């Protein structure tokens, strides 16, 4: 007999596979493109096999499970697919697949049955289909990443990171300096506070970036090791996953099988291809260097944070305050104009918006500093 907790988990897994199978079958029936229809049908068959896996686990434990019906959410999605078209619900299905991609990783029965690999493959295939729907069909992994569309090309590049990194340093240190200036502190106190804010903020940003990139690299390395093990244990299944991915990219089944066969002929090439196509990871870069990212983050934050304190090296009193606001305002306008390069908005609008937001934050902290300074005085 299985314990109640495991039985409940088996039932939940079974229901999830029944839902997925029903949904993919509906997509197969509704999809007009015969190639995609076949892919959805094969995904449905795999989900049905997974359902039988959990049904077998329950039966082995002496639990009789009646025929299950799709859940209400699945019935609603299938209803929408039939009436609104597949493109209407594909993004939702993609989100659900990405959310469930690790659901089997900590279940020993599922790991023994190699279900986690299948779930990751399904998530990647659905994501590829969604990308195809945006007009990127037929592109290779690297070309897909580079040429997917204007909105993606402008959304996550180095220019964006540089502009936003400098903005973080500028706005945070400007607000800090104005708060201390509002408290009527002397020049040396403001300089010391601004320099401390610059160093502390830059170090914090650098450490955060290092942790983020290094954690991603470790996760990628673990995923690549898992993929290598799966390639060794079940090469035929990995070949079928490649076939589905290439079909989702727009190749005919025969072409997809031929290409997948060529990729699988050499183990190193096969692993490199699977990692790129199935996991979406570049095994050569693994997201870049953590130390380079940390150094860049430190430098960009420092570049922005230096503007509010520069005038205090040269002037004192009101002249230093006006100089700090002037230098920071000019930098805010430059950063706003920089954001226009990847948002598509007008340069003047972006510069004025950034200037208003930055000076508003500085005004708030100056007012608070003024109140606190008067109170303490």
Topology diagram in text:
Blueprint: H1 4-30, H2 34-60, H3 72-84, H4 86-100, H5 108-112, H6 115-136, H7 141-147, H8 150-153, H9 158-182, H10 187-233, H11 235-248, H12 253-264, H13 267-277, H14 290-305, H15 317-343, H16 347-376
Helix pairs in contact: 1-2, 1-3, 2-6, 3-4, 4-6, 6-11, 9-10, 9-14, 9-15, 9-16, 10-11, 10-13, 10-14, 11-12, 15-16
Dominant shape: elongated
Give the structural class.
mainly alpha
> For the terminal residues, how far apart are their CA atoms?
75 Å
Beta-strand proportion: under 5%
Number of strands: 0
Mean pLDDT: 82
Describe the sheet with the most strands. Answer: none
Task: Name the poorly predicted regions.
Answer: 135-157
Helix content: over 70%
Work out the radius of gyration. Answer: 28 Å
Please tell me the total number of domains.
3
Compact summary:
The chain is an all-alpha fold. The chain has helices at residues 4-30, 34-60, 72-84, 86-100, 108-112, 115-136, 141-147, 150-153, 158-182, 187-233, 235-248, 253-264, 267-277, 290-305, 317-343, 347-376. The termini are far apart.
Can you describe this structure?
With 377 residues, the chain is mainly alpha-helical. The protein has 3 domains: 4-137, Ferritin, CATH 1.20.1260; 158-214 and 293-376, no CATH class; 216-277, no CATH class. It has helices spanning 4-30, 34-60, 72-84, 86-100, 108-112, 115-136, 141-147, 150-153, 158-182, 187-233, 235-248, 253-264, 267-277, 290-305, 317-343, 347-376. 80% of the residues lie in helices and 0% in strands. It has 16 helices and no strands. The longest helix is centred in the middle third of the chain and has 47 residues, at 187-233.
């Amino acid at each position: 007999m299985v314990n109640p907790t495991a039985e409940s988990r088996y039932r939940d897994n079974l229901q999830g596979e029944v839902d997925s199978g029903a949904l993919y079958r509906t997509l197969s029936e509704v999809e007009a493109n015969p190639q995609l229809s076949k892919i959805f049908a094969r995904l449905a068959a795999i989900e049905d096999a997974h359902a039988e896996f959990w049904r077998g686990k329950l039966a082995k434990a002496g639990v009789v499970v009646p025929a299950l019906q799709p859940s209400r959410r699945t019935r609603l999605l299938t209803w929408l697919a039939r009436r609104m078209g597949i493109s209407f619900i594909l993004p939702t299905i993609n989100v659900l697949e990405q959310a469930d991609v690790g659901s089997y990783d900590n279940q020993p029965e599922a790991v023994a049955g190699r279900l986690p690999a299948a779930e990751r493959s399904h998530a990647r295939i659905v994501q590829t289909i969604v990308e195809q729907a945006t007009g990127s069909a037929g592109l290779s992994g690297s070309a897909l990443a580079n040429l997917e569309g204007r909105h993606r090309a402008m959304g996550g590049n180095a220019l964006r990171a540089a502009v936003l990194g400098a903005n973080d340093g500028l706005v945070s240190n400007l607000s800090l300096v104005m708060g201390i200036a509002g408290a009527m502190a002397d020049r040396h106190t403001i300089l010391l506070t601004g320099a401390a804010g610059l160093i502390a903020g830059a170090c914090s940003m650098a450490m955060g970036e290092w942790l983020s990139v290094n954690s991603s690299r470790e996760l990628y390395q673990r995923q690549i090791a898992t993929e290598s093990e799966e390639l060794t244990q079940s090469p035929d299944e990995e070949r079928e996953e490649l076939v589905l991915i290439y079909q989702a990219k727009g190749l005919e089944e025969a072409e997809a099988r031929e290409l997948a066969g060529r990729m699988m002929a050499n183990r190193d090439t096969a692993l490199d291809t699977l990692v790129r196509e199935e996991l979406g990871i570049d095994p050569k870069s693994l997201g870049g260097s953590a130390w380079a990212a940390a150094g860049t983050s430190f430098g960009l934050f420092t570049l922005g944070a230096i503007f509010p304190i520069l005038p205090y090296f040269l002037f004192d009193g009101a002249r230093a305050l006006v100089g700090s606001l002037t230098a920071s305002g000019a930098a805010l306008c430059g950063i706003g104009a920089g954001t226009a390069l990847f948002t598509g908005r007008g340069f003047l609008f972006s510069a004025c918006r950034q200037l208003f937001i930055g000076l508003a934050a500085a005004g708030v902290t100056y007012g608070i500093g003024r109140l606190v300074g008067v109170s303490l005085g």
